[in-house]
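hey team, just a heads up i'm posting the complex here instead of the shared drive bc the drive is being weird again. everything in one block, sequence lines first with there labels, then the predicted structure for the whole assembly after. its two chains so it's a bit long, scroll down
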Amino acid sequence: ETGVTQSPTHLIKTRGQQVTLRCSSQSGHNTVSWYQQALGQGPQFIFQYYREEENGRGNFPPRFSGLQFPNYSSELNVNALELDDSALYLCASSLDRPGEQFFGPGTRLTVL
Amino acid sequence: KQEVTQIPAALSVPEGENLVLNCSFTDSAIYNLQWFRQDPGKGLTSLLLIQSSQREQTSGRLNASLDKSSGRSTLYIAASQPGDSATYLCAVRPAGGADGLTFGKGTHLIIQP
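-- predicted structure starts here --
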């Protein structure tokens, strides 16, 4: 059974650019959630997708958007990057919305 | 707004000791609580999941308890080993289960050989 995978591992962007991060869910999982983790902090919930529809969102602006595909893989898009967007972005999948969440290794984004 | 607090923020103990990590949350209307381990710069590894109707869960040397009415959970680690060194995170999912997890800032644990 393949776990949650994320790509790329590391990414460097400049302020104002746009970025797309990718996540492949664990086999059979229909729910994916994205989190942002700043250095020394716990992860913060960005949003959740269930069967290709967003069904929960944390306190993040609309420039953070996402997609979930029919195979349950997912993308996180961030527009107009700001310096404070520098963080570890984590993807988690679960079997149904309230299920145990399994996390990927994360993508380290640095905004210069 | 749910807030999760973990105490202590950091802990250093000799190998072989039993230890307890604490987690408290302000809103008792939770669906479940999950404990994770995070190694530096890495993703999260799920350790234990406790449903709101449960009092505790055990996995190997780990035991997690939940007192929902008082908003508290503890993670007990028996016979600690240097490989247990990591940051331990507690997270709660709100009742209804639709929203994401709310995390504490974690406890940074060092086990001295």
